[in-house]
Amino acid sequence: MDLLYTPAEMRAWRRAHDGHSAGFAPTMGYLHEGHLTLARRAREENDLAVVSIFVNPTQFAPGEDFEKYPRDEERDLQLLRDAGVDAVYFPTPAVMYPPGYQTYVTVEEVTQPLEGSARPGHFRGVTTVVLKLFNAVEPDRAYFGRKDAQQLRVLRRMALDLDLGLEIVPCDIVREPDGLAMSSRNVYLSPQQRAAAPVVRRALLAAKARYDAGERDPAAIRAAAIDLIRAEPLAELEYVSLADDDSLEELAGPVARPALISTVVRFGHTRLLDNIELGLP
Ligand code: AMP
Q1: Tell me, what CATH number does 271's domain have?
Q2: What is the Å distance from ligand 1's center to 144 Cα?
């Protein structure tokens, strides 16, 4: 497994493997089974698998957890070696954003609601770094988790709008046995919070059950999730959204098209994201 530290090194590696297809999974490290699923798919579906590890400062707002984001480089590299990854791209913030840096990518509408509204500037950081990573890695396919549902839609939009000529491949959410979506940030949870956290998944399943039983009123479907989350004393509900699956515009009328229920629930300072798709085959 090769380690590349700068865009120039990454591009040179890619050029040395000219004519081979590359699958790419960008991550912020502190890897878990969700990340490794992306890496393995990249491995299986392409000649080459590339994973990046970069905690991207521009997608964190002041006061968020950039400085204390969990890191374990040695363990991450061993896991990627075991997954059969060919190259790891490991740039530093100084390499990605040298003095004088001033160029950002903005996707307009689909970045506005949900996480865009809760974390101003977040998606501008995400699209900027992902485009820079794509420019260095030149992947044929890029693998992203459905857990970050809005991110997936934003990046799909960017790839289309900017003619990137690569495929954005969505990958299913990998969960702990009790249903909690895996996340590097789960390590922040106290044992009590960790024990209560599966309520997030249960709440989404309750909303989906209401939909599957024939309910089409967005407020009633959302209420099924909200009731469960409100009943958990350690949980603080940030939002439950029922939105158009593509645009992520909040549904005003009855659900008549594929839709996405997404939620953010806070346990202390830790924000847990989860979502479930409705009405898709
Ligand atoms: P992160 O390191 O949190 O930036 O995540 C890197 C990639 O892994 C993103 O595409 C995430 O959506 C994906 N990912 C994170 N957690 C999971 C999970 N539990 N299941 C599937 N994909 C995930």
Answers
A1: 3.30.1300.10
A2: 7
In this prediction, residue 232 carries a pLDDT of: 98
**How many domains in the chain?**
2
Last residue within a domain, chosen from 140, 171, 202: 171
Cα-to-centroid distance, 42 and ligand 1 (Å): 14
- Residue 144 CB partners (closer than 8 Å, separation 6+): 25, 26, 38, 151, 152, 155, 168, 169, 170, 171
Give the whole-angstrom CA distance, residue 230 versus residue 186: 20
d(CA 150, CA 91): 25
pLDDT at 280: 63
**C-beta of 80 in contact with ligand 1 (< 6 A):** no
- Gap between the Cα atoms of 147 and 238, Å rounded: 17
pLDDT score recorded for residue 54:
98
| Exposure string over 12-32, b if 16+ CB within 10 A, otherwise e | ebbeebeeeebbbbbbbbbbb
The span from the CA of 136 to the CA of 163, in Å, is 16
Q: How far apart are the first and last CA of the chain?
A: 38
Say if ligand 1 is within 6 A of residue 38 CB: yes
pLDDT of residue 228: 98
State the CATH number of the domain containing residue 99.
3.40.50.620
Q: Which residue range is the domain that position 198 belongs to?
A: 184-275
What distance in Å separates the CA atoms of residue 58 and residue 129, rounded to the nearest whole number? 8
**The model scores a pTM over 0.90:** yes
Task: State the pLDDT at residue 4.
Answer: 98
Give the active site residues.
35
E strand or H helix at 26: strand 22-27
User: Same domain for 121 and 145?
Assistant: yes
